[in-house]
Amino acid sequence: MVGKSVFQDAEKYSKPLMFHGKSGKISYFWYFDGASLRAPADQNLTVDFSEDKRGLNGAVSSSEVLRFTFHEKQLIQAKTTLTVDFPRRLNAKKAAFYQKSPKTIRRLLTAPINQDRVSSVTLPIYDTNGTFYLAGMDSSLHEDPSQVQTADSAGGNPGAASSSMQGADSSSAGGCSSGSASKKSKAASGGGTAPANSGRKDRYHTDPTPGGKPKPAEPQNTPKNSQKAFYCTLSIDCKTVFNHRDQLRPEKKSVVPSDGILFKSQKVVFYQGESVFDVLQRETRKNKLQMEFKKTPAYNSGYIEGIQNLYEFDCGSLSGWMYQVNGWFPNYGCSRYRLKDGDVIQWRYTCDLGRDIGNGGKLTK
Prior knowledge:
By secondary structure, the protein is mainly beta.
């Protein structure tokens, strides 16, 4: 359950929100555009998935059918999307999304399937009443036109989330979301390659990078050269936990060091073309620090779920990991921040959606 106050905060500051949940082997991400949010309320964002296609009564058949059951029946008003990550790669390149009510089955839209190590699809969600189905649009797909209504809006890309907290827009942060759809909730990451004053989101639906700040570099288009080495400064801390001890999960007290420092500030090597994520991954492995991440193809970046067993929401509903480079919280994911010689990277744990570490007011020194 995500509390009303989280959505009120997002509405007040026009902050994007993203929440992660899991149903069996399927992961899902909710995105809410804070600028469009109206009438905040408590929300149960749990979604159950199954491969039970019996409710379609033969109206739709496909080799890949996924049934959705939403727990929240009064979804708040906002531009909202749901990204579903499958546990495997699907054969189809597109999927059809259906809504079943007691009297009708409607095909709401078709959406492209993003292919990485696994498949994912992003859907705009306007209504959660009834039962929903996603069917792979391969050669096995069949619709009975006498039973299926086709919405006028069918077709096209529904669009992914504009940004998230581990690479959010400039009004939010670089690392956490502000609510949970499941017991262990996480966020994803976005990007921004449009010109600074264009006002347009990039292909990963992130607001433009502020003027004077480095634009994101897509990892798949950025060659790396291990023959050219440079140095940056890296640090990792969770000092904010000390001001929120009452919110820290009891079982997590043992993972927080007495000084709050997980990785003391020091110069580390990186190679031409590498990102903030590359450095974090290498140094945590090298120094035997636990680090868990998740690839988020919709935002073309990795999301840092936990470091040294301290995860988002372990210290309250507004807690999680954020990153800064040279004192700035980038508005795109850590996999898309291409480093230059001398950069200073700080991974910091926040317990207040970034406000306690300088993102939301003046930056802390």
